[in-house]
Design goal:
Strand content: 35-45%
Order of helices and strands: EEHHEEEEHEEEEEHEEHE
Number of helices: 5
Helix content: 10-25%
Number of strands: 14
Oligomer: single chain
Radius of gyration: 18 Å
Distance between the termini: 27 Å
Shape: globular
Length: 245
């Protein structure tokens, strides 16, 4: 299930580190929807979050600390492979329509509409995709309790990506690990970038990749997102080309 949330801003300024504000909006919606009974399903520590999202900020200008949005409009694309999750988030967001939610810089964001988007059916083994939100590949080092982030430029990127995808599938409770046989992600036209998230600058990748593998796996990644920090606004893909092997 995929839908777009259209929001209006009170003024032109939003924080450069904007993803936590979107997560806060989601949490607020779940708290007020259905007496808050779904909140712990998604935001209790350790629970898997089977969704991803991407924030669109058209006609914007970036500075070191903020983003200027002259038309005072942003949108959020939300995607999940779990219909129950989709219904909960869709309904909870729709209930907040025309209600202002606070942002930094004395700003507010107001949900104006929530629109279902048509998903692209995957029936072939190879797809070219564009990342609408950055590809984040993160590995945690237990020895020093630090996270390492890999963009496609790093020599260790492919190995780290494969480990992260394997972990994602193993924790999905939806797919067998054997489904990864023959899977590959080939960079086609990519660039490394650095984004701010929870006051930390992390290395990520934007651009086009070619995904090859089992059709069920490709559908899973398309609907649920790819790699790390998906539920924090990373890893949402858009299909731009499909071909049969």
């Amino acid at each position: 299930m995929r839908f777009k949330i259209q929001l209006d801003l009170k003024n032109e300024k939003i924080p450069l580190d904007y993803r936590p504000a979107v997560i806060s909006l989601f949490k607020h919606c779940l708290t007020e929807y259905d007496n808050g009974e779904h909140f712990s399903t998604y935001y209790e520590i350790g629970n898997e979050k089977p969704f991803t999202f991407a924030v669109g900020i058209p006609s914007s200008t970036f500075s070191k600390e903020m983003i200027l949005v002259p038309n005072r409009k942003i949108n959020i694309t939300f995607s999940t492979g779990d219909i129950g999750t989709g219904v909960v988030f869709f309904n909870s967001l729709l209930m907040q329509k025309n209600k202002a939610y606070p942002l930094a810089y004395e700003n507010e964001m107001t949900v104006k509409n929530v629109l279902i988007e048509k998903e692209v059916p995957i029936t072939v083994n190879t797809i070219d995709v564009m990342f609408k939100s950055p590809l984040c590949v993160r590995e945690h080092n237990k020895e020093n309790n630090r996270d390492m982030y890999y963009s496609y430029e790093k020599e260790e990127f492919n190995e780290a990506l494969n480990r992260v995808i394997e972990f994602q599938v193993a924790n999905s409770n939806a797919l067998p690990i054997s489904i990864l046989e023959g899977f590959s992600m080939e960079p086609i036209k990519c660039k490394k970038t650095v984004v701010r998230h929870h006051s930390q600058f992390i290395e990520v990748t934007l651009g086009i990749f070619r995904l090859t593998g089992n059709i069920a796996l490709l559908n899973y990644l398309y609907t649920n997102g790819v790699a790390s920090r998906k539920s924090s606004g990373f890893g949402l893909i858009e299909i731009i080309r499909k071909e049969m092997l």
